[in-house]
Each structure stands twice: as structure tokens, then as C-alpha cells.
Amino acid sequence: MTDELVILGSGGGRHHIRTQYRATGGIIYKFNGIQSHIDPGPGAIVRINQYQEDPVKTELFIITHAHVDHYSDLCAIIESSREILHDKNYNYYKKGTLITAEEVLNYISDYHLNMLERVVKFRAGNKFSYKGAEITGTKTIHSPKNEGFGIKFKLKDYSIAFSSDTMVYDGFSEEFSDCNILVLNLLRPNSITCRRHLCTDEVIPFLNKIDPPLKSLIITHFGSYMDSLRSTKNYVPSQVKKLQETTNIKNIVAAEDGLKIKITELLN
Ligand SMILES: [Zn+2]
Ligand SMILES: [Zn+2]
Description:
Elements: E1 4-7, H1 14-19, E2 27-31, E3 34-38, H2 44-50, E4 58-63, H3 68-71, H4 74-79, E5 97-100, H5 110-113, E6 118-121, E7 127-130, E8 133-138, E9 150-154, E10 159-162, H6 172-175, E11 181-185, H7 200-208, E12 216-220, H8 236-246, E13 251-254, E14 260-262, H9 263-266
Parallel strand pairs: 3-4, 4-5, 5-6, 10-11, 11-12, 12-13
Antiparallel strand pairs: 1-2, 1-14, 2-3, 7-8, 8-9, 9-10
């Protein structure tokens, strides 16, 4: 199996958008020979090139909610997913599927939407089948104004979920109980709470109630409190240690900009 994650940005929130202290390009997820790009925030197209990935290979675009650190580079990513835009008669080539929170469509030009084969308006609880992958929207509680979703991929050999931005809620553990791997947006360390986001101490009891236990947890989308020039230190290593010591999950991985992770390593 060659399935892989490529971290194009381990940062989230406005300070990382501004400083790029941690990048904000989202995640490339390659599965079944398909290249998808989840939440291409500011700099996504720069990071793809910096980390020597090929934007032309992307055919599935996913935007979990209408915050700028999740959707800003979508037009550039759609346009970069083909080498030639149109034939000599200006007939534009159609390629790719966009799965998105509906509100995001207000911010994407018709010009770019018309380059796609398909646009799927998506929300928590929805299901969509894509070339053998069963894709499900998971619940998020985040912005009261912008409805979003997390996303879960059920494949033949494993399943993986991306929580997107959320806080914990009743049923959080059950939402991920059929997953082997969870990519968790963890904004803040320890017990430093942030409204509508997660900190480590809040989420630990919910992680331990995922049954059967996850094989791997990847933490990402760190805010400025977690690690930036404003923070007193980089809290990420201590959060990995804490999660290793207090959860029943075998592998805890911290996202770093440019990190490439083979899925097979996460299933051990
Ligand atoms: Zn975010
Ligand atoms: Zn958000």
C-alpha cells in the first residue's frame, strides 16, 4: 500500500496565517492511487512545491468549513490541478470533485467551480462514495456561523478520520470508534481552553473512550499558544508525551511542516 499523508501545514489560526511560523497549507491525503487535498489554507500551493509534491495529481478537493485557514488557496489548487486549462477554442477541461461546506461556495469563483466535474455540498452525517472509498461527514461544534464537518474515509484495509476544527461533544468518541487513525486539530496545550477548539486535557478522556482504541493519533493545526514566537516554548513535544502516557493509543505523531507519513506505519 502506498497511501500517505503529507503535512502542508501544521499551523492553524490567524497568527500562523500572518507569520507562517507554522505553515497553513492543509494536508494531502493519498489513498487508492488518488490524491486529495484537505483544507488548502494560505500558502498551500507554495508548500506543495516546497515539499516536492505534484499539484497536477490532485483530483479530490475537500473544504471542511468556511474559515480562511481552510479554504483560501482553493482556487489556486483547482487551477493547478491541470497542466492545460482549455483547448484552442476555450473549452475548459473539467477535472476533479470538490466536497465542501455549502457556505464556502460563496467565496469561490464560478470560473473555478466550472473547472470541476462535480461539486458535492456536504455536512455532518452525509455519505459519499468515491472510487471505492466510503466518505462520511463527522460532527463538529466550532463556529456558530459556519457549519462544517470532519471527514472519515473507510477503505478496504483501514479507516482514517480528520476531525477538522471542533470542540468535544457527547458522541465524539463514538464518531471515531470505527477508525484506525485520527488526525486531530489540537489548537492548544494542556488545560488552556479555547472556545470552539480543543486543548489536550479536554480531549484525553474522549480519546480513551474510542472503542476499539485508535492505532494512531496525529495531532496538528496547532495555534500560536502551542508554538509560535508568542508562546513561551514549543509545547508540542510535551503534549505528545502526555498523550503517550495517558491514552491507550499506540502511536502518537505530531505533525510538522513537510512531514510525510506512510499509512502502513500508522497501522502497526
Ligand atoms: Zn482552523
Ligand atoms: Zn475554523
